[in-house]
Amino acid sequence: MIALFAVTFFYRFVRVHVHNLRWGIGFSVLLFFAGAPFFGDRMFSVYHVFWPFVILYGLAFFSILLDRLDFSIDLYKNGLTGLVIGLTALPLLISIFLAPPAREPYPPYYPRFTMRVCELLKPNELVCTDMPWATAWYGNRTSILLPETLDDYYEINDYRKYISGLYLTTLTKDRPFLSGLLDGPEKDWFPIMMGRLPPELPLKRGFQLNGNDQIFLTDSIRWGTGGAAEEGGEDTAAGAPQEGAAE
Questions:
Q1: H/E/C letters for each residue in 75-128?
Q2: Contact, 142 vs 122, CB < 8 A?
């Protein structure tokens, strides 16, 4: 359809408004791809808005070609039409019958992980996380966004509402190492993600999920034997903390 649409620029339609609209669409397409890079990669997905016009003009020009070829046998004309329709529908057929199996949208969204850590908290308790929209939706717990610094965290915990759980995911851990985790806004949280807990942090018990991708901390042992490991977590809560590490 794109090829047929491109060839229409070498053909003059009889109707003036059809001819002018074609040039307007072509100019809009060029202007769009010239300006889209200035608005980010996601802007390129908006090009689908041109598809109805491209398909319409492409099929119109294909119909004109069929008339010009003047096939004496209808079978040739119908076969060529069917071939074009089949090629146009091929991407849809491939996406339906040969699409890869659906996978969990991880990282960081894995509802079972989020629900698991939220079930350890009471309905009236507060969880602090880097994706509060997920813990609020999947876990049905009051959630706040991870503050930029530990001082802000302590201010909320001491003067606003006690934070019963801290849930850090790959949203924070996958930040650029030097500009984000060592010298950037997340530098206060980097030691915690590595298992080195500050002495003043009241949340000393926790476990990691999916290897060491995520970490959940709370103020006491709230799970039974193997409770965390059942959902892909590594239960390291047995025993007392050693040198600030999450155990």
A1: HHHHHHHHHHHHHHHHHHHHHHHCCCCCCCCCCCCCHHHHHHHHHCCCCCCEEE
A2: no
Q: Residue for token digits 């915690």?
A: 192
What are 165's strand-pairing partners?
A: 127, 218
**Which phi and psi angles does 209 have, rounded to 5°?**
-120, 145
Q: pLDDT tens digits for 152-198?
A: 999 999 999 999 999 998 887 776 654 445 565 667 787 888 778 88
The DSSP symbol for 187 reads G
Question: pLDDT digit string (tens) for 98-149?
Answer: 877 767 667 777 888 899 999 999 999 999 999 999 999 999 999 999 998 8
123 CB contacts (<8 Å, ≥6 apart)?
Answer: 140, 141
Element (H, E) at 206: strand 205-209
Domain boundaries, the chain: 2-70, 111-235
Q: Are 123 and 129 in contact (CB under 8 A)?
A: no
What single DSSP character describes residue 140?
-
pTM of the model: 0.52
